[in-house]
Specification:
alpha+beta; AraC family transcriptional regulator; Jelly Rolls; Homeodomain-like_sf; three-stranded mixed beta sheet; Arc Repressor Mutant, subunit A; Tscrpt_reg_AraC-type_HTH; transcription; five-stranded antiparallel beta sheet; about 300 residues; DNA-binding transcription factor activity
């Protein structure tokens, strides 16, 4: 396991000179001189990365689903994620923008960074850009590059962070477009998800294993937790957790009206360790306690 916790360390591994700015850098993928001894080695990166790779020249695997656009593919990773470096073809094109959390620590972006859920998507859930979208992204990145290369002053970091936020806002907009253009594929995802969740609540898995977690369901569907929740939210208005609660309440209503089991026993049947937690959730979702609903 290789730990890359600073921008300087990253430059060393990639065969780059010492970085101009200690907290942010823009790497030209075509200029990477990565030692073969590091290939297929797992590594943990201590900073955020935003990368754009040319889909025509760079053989990176993104392929769990079809491509909407092939002009370019963007990928985002957050600090602490584990990745594996694979062989980079000699004709690879693109860039990788890396910034340390300390760069945004004192800014408003620090409190908003969790809202950009695509930092936790899998590589197969990359953002595929149209030609116009790619031009927009590259223009912002070039502005950031100019600020990095300029002589630093009291405004430099503030301008860099401001442009980073603009870049992330455009990425969020373009992901929204991608969710729409993948409408038919997304409907298939939703159909499979709802079928799987319904079957789970009807099976003995509920009693044996308890309530399914968001992570468990995303894994069964073959997606990252954030990507699945974002697709569901876009198409149905409810995220993964809200879908779980909906199925739970529907199952609870059926048990309360079709059996004479106590409220506590219903709670245990639904996978709750503490009946009070079930009653609290039921009242929050329906406006009534389980006993009131039964009456």
């Amino acid at each position: 396991m290789i730990n890359i916790d600073t921008i300087t360390r990253l430059h060393e591994l990639l065969g780059y000179d010492k970085p101009i700015h200690p907290l942010i850098t823009l790497i030209d993928i075509n200029n990477i001189q990565f030692s073969s001894k590091y290939e297929n080695r797992q590594m943990v990166v201590g900073f955020y990365t935003i990368s754009l790779k040319d889909g025509h020249n760079c053989k990176f695997k993104y392929g769990r689903q079809y491509y909407d656009f092939s002009e370019g593919s963007m990928m985002f990773t957050a600090p602490g994620q584990v990745g594996t470096v694979e062989h980079t073809p000699s004709d690879a094109k693109g860039w990788m923008l890396c910034f340390h959390p300390d760069l945004i620590r004192k800014s408003q972006l620090n409190s908003k960074i969790k809202e950009y859920t695509f930092f936790s998507y899998d590589s197969s859930e990359a953002l595929h850009l149209s030609e116009q979208e790619e031009e927009t992204i590259n223009n912002i990145v070039n502005t950031i590059k100019e600020e990095i290369n300029e002589n630093s002053d009291i405004y430099s970091d503030e301008l860099i962070v401001s442009n980073l936020e603009v870049l992330l806002n455009y990425a969020r907009r373009f992901y929204g477009r991608q969710f729409i253009t993948r409408n038919s594929a997304n409907k298939d995802v939703i159909s499979r998800f709802e079928t799987f969740l319904t079957d789970y609540f009807q099976s003995k898995d509920l009693v044996d294993n308890g309530l399914p977690t968001v992570k468990y369901l995303a894994g069964k569907m073959g997606y990252s937790t954030n990507y699945l929740s974002d697709v569901l939210k876009k198409e149905t208005g409810k995220n993964t957790q809200e879908h779980i609660h909906f199925q739970l309440i529907e199952k609870a209503k059926s048990l309360l009206l079709s059996t004479e089991e106590s409220v506590a026993q219903v709670a245990y049947t639904l996978g709750f360790e503490y009946p009070g937690h079930f009653s609290k959730l039921f009242k929050k979702k329906t406006g009534m306690s389980p006993s009131e609903y039964r009456r």
